[in-house]
Amino acid sequence: MSIRAAQLRDITAIYRVLCSVIAEQEFLMSQQKPELPMFTRFIEANLKRGNPVWIAQEGQRTVGWCDVYPRGSDVQRHVGRVGMGVAAESRGKGYGKAMLAATIESSWQAGFTRLELEVFTTNRSAIALYTSMGFVKEGLHRRVRKDSRGYRDTYTMAFLKPES
């Protein structure tokens, strides 16, 4: 298992993992993959600003990512939105936990003091991971996504930087 900070050369590999997770239609809000140029600009901007972007690798193959980007307004730049995913065949091996731990630590170093994420209420393994790492449920959002199976609910979860 290898976890490291992402570099520009990793963008296409991260994109492949993202698209594979989106294709499952189970874990991410997105139902359609983003266009590669738009995704590239997003990751490039995060890396340029020093926002955390981590990847997990099995050998030379990228199998997961975890990133944090700030909310849009100046008064909320201390709030980081967490996004992550692990390729189906690599789940349950500790990649998510390792990436999230690295992302949390580097987020505090980057100046974030609050991390938040949204997770489907049916994604019990992710909820257990986030809870084990210090995230707490802050809200239930009903009927957030509608797909072929009907409506899906999400939890908002957050983790505040411990006071020193």
UniProtKB/TrEMBL annotation:
InterPro entries: Acyl_CoA_acyltransferase, Bact_Acetyltransf, GNAT_dom. Residues 1-162 form the N-acetyltransferase domain. GO terms for molecular function: acyltransferase activity, transferring groups other than amino-acyl groups. The keyword Lipid biosynthesis does not apply. It holds the Pfam family Acetyltransf_1. It comes from the Bacteria. CDD domains: NAT_SF. Keywords: Acyltransferase, Transferase. PANTHER family: AMINOALKYLPHOSPHONATE N-ACETYLTRANSFERASE-RELATED-RELATED (PTHR43877). This is GNAT family N-acetyltransferase.
